[in-house]
Write a structure and sequence with these properties.
Structural class: alpha/beta
CATH superfamily: Cobalamin-binding domain
Number of helices: 7
Length: 222
Amino acid sequence: MQNLCKSAKSVDKLFRHERDLKTMASPIRILTAVPICDGHDSAINTVNLEFIRHGIEVIYLGYHRSVGDIVRAAIQEDVRAIGISSYNGGHIEFFAEIVDLLRKKGADDIKVFGGGGGTITHEDAAIMKRKGVDEIFFAGTSLEEMVKFVHQRYGKPRGKRTRAKTLDMELAHKLSEIEEAAGKSKKHQTASSAKAAKAAAAGSKIEHQTSRVVGFTKDHVD
């Protein structure tokens, strides 16, 4: 019985998740990458798939990517955040360079987070956060926690944005605005359809309740 209850809860959670995805204005878009001179990609691939499964749009640049590559792509794709998986050391400097370059490019609304298993210590993480990194995930952090963080931290609407400094950034901002508008329109249509369906179902229920059935029969003699 307990297993059946767990299964029912899992199914209900899945349906609620699917419903939420359909009513989102537009998905959270993030960019992920592995730093230069680092070929460890099994962890980031697992995280990417979990993000995608929960409705987060992921642009994965792959491994052995430079700071310039990552920042340029993040600006062109107008992502909400950059996720870095680092296992080869040098993470304090690498993350800090990404944050600094984003600021120089006028794109400091793009945030940075990441992890590195046991490579990044708690002391390192404290330094990285002081340098502008949003969050560092350590070994043992569940995928659910990472997904929850991304939804809560980057799922809110952006505030007023500074004027784009480059054509790449201006184009990216315009495309995001178009996508947001289309997403809101779709969300409104979905909500209207759901409301109409609910009203129709309610009307059908009332009609069913007030219907009367009259039958006639007669005695049957063998």
